[in-house]
Design goal:
It is a single chain. The chain has a single domain, classed as SH3 type barrels (Roll). The protein is built from one helix and five strands, in the order E-E-E-E-E-H. The chain has a five-stranded antiparallel β-sheet, covered by helices on one side. Strand 4 and strand 5 form a beta hairpin. The longest helix is centred in the last third of the chain and has 24 residues. The two termini are 13 Å apart.
Length: 95
């Protein structure tokens, strides 16, 4: 499964079609050609290596906080019940 994730633009390449985006210290090259006038420090939703939408910092933080809560709850379920689904923390965050 592949989901779009919020990332922060930390470097913009001179061609302005690619950028370096970051989350939790992990950096990835992303195509920003769908974003009008991308700027360093902005948050974008990234899917399959493409920034597809600009979002507010608060929204990005809320999404990642919700994701972390979900992963924590799944980890507890798995610890309590060996039949709980296996957790793959990379689902949806393959940046």
């Amino acid at each position: 499964m592949c989901l779009a994730v919020p990332l922060k633009l930390v470097e913009l390449n001179s061609n302005k079609t690619t950028a370096i985006a970051e989350r939790d210290g992990i950096r990835r090259s992303v195509n920003v050609s769908f974003i009008r006038e991308p700027k360093i420090g902005e948050y974008v939703i990234v899917h399959a290596g493409f920034a597809i939408e600009r979002i507010a910092q608060k929204q990005a933080e809320d999404v990642m906080s919700s994701y972390q809560e979900l992963m924590s709850e799944l980890a507890e379920l798995q610890a309590d019940n060996k039949t709980a689904p296996e957790i793959n923390n990379n689902v949806g965050v393959s940046i």
